[in-house]
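Trying the structure run again after the queue cleared.
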Amino acid sequence: MDQAQHEPWFIPHFFGLPSGVGYEAEPACVDLDNTHVQDLDGAERLIRVLTLRPQPSAKKGALLFSETDMARLLNMILDTSGAPANDVIASCEYVIGRDGCSVQITLTLNVVTDPGPDRRLAEGIKALFFLDPEGVQRPCLITEAGVKLAAEDYSGGDVLHGALVCRVITHASHQSVRDAFIARGVPAADIIQISAKAIGDTGVLSNTVFIRLKPGYPIDRVPWKVPLQEPGFCLAPRRVAIQGHKGCLICRDLGHSKSACKCAKENLCGRCTFPFAALIKQGKNPRNHDCEGGPTGYGAAHLDPLGDGWHQIWVQHEASRSAPAESEDPISSRLSDLQAARDLADIARAQLALGGKKKKKKKKEKRKEHPSPAPGDGQPFSFPRSVEPEDLPPIGPSSLPVE
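Done. C-alpha cells:
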C-alpha cells in the first residue's frame, strides 16, 4: 500500500509541532496551521477536524453515522499510533456536513510536549489516507449502515462546525468573558467553548477571543456589547462581532451588506440607530454608548445610550490611581552635564555655518575672475524664430563653389 502523504488533497502539516519528529522527511506544506486555543478550564488545547466522505458518493440526506462508528474510528487511530487516549484526546464530537454527504469529526487534543498531540496521533491519522496500488483512495471505515467512508481532510480550524462563533477583542480572562455573556442574557449551558487564537505557532495567545455558542443559537439574542475589564483598566463595554456572519456586520441584517447599510453610511448604532455624531458633538466617546444595559445591569432600566454611566466608571478609576512614586536622582549634575553638551553643539553648528559662508564667498570670487560669455559671443549661429524654413537659401549642388 502506498501512502498518499504527498498528494495535494492530503495536507500533512497538521502533524506539526516540532519539525521532523517521527518522520524521515517532513512532508511539504503550503500553509502552517498550529491552532492553539485556551479552554474554559484554562488548559491549552489543539483543535483538529477530520473530514470523511462516502465512496461512492451517497445521496444527500442518506449518510448515517453513529456513536459506534465514531468509537471504531478512534480505536483505529489510537491502535495504529499507540497513543493513550486519555493523554491526547480531551473530547471528540461529530456532525454531518452541510452538504449532507460528509462527516466532520472535531478532535480537541491536550497540548503536551515532546512530542505534541498531533505527532502522537500522526501514524494513526496517516493510516486513514492509504491509497490502493491503482492510486485510488481506500475507504478507512465501513459504518454500521454499510456506508464506505474515506478520509478527505484533516485540518485545524477556528470554529467548531455548526457552532455560532462570536468574537471579542480583549485581554480579559476567559471566565470574565463567560460571566459577561451570561450577564447579557446568554444561558451558561449554551456556551460551548471560549478560546483565544494563538499568534502563529508561537503558542502565545492573542487578544482575539472566540466564544462558541451551541448550533442554532438565535443571532438576535447574541449580545452587541459585553462589560469587560482589561488588565490595568476599568470596566467598559466591548463590542461583540459574529464570526462568518453572511449579513451586514453593522446591523446584523441578513438582507443587505455593510456597503448598503444606512447605519454604516450615517454613523448610527446598528442596534438602536442612535446617532454617534450627537455624542461626538457633546465631546463624549461613542464607544461608551450602550443600548442593552449599563454599568448597573442589563435591560431597559439600566440603559446608558449617552455613555455617562460608563464615563463615570472611568473617572472613578482614574481618580483611584495612585500617584507616581517619587525617585531621587543619584546624579546631581545631570542638568549641568546637558548644558555642557549643548554648548559643544552650539560651537559645532557655528563652525559648520562659517565653513558654508567661506565656500559661497570663494565661488562668487571665481565667477568674477571668469565671467560667462555674453550672448552671441562664441555661440554657434542660429536663426531667429521669426525666420521661416522656406525663407532660408536652398542647400544643394548649385550652391557649392565651382573649381
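The first helix runs from residue 67 to 81. Worth checking whether this holds up in the mutant runs.
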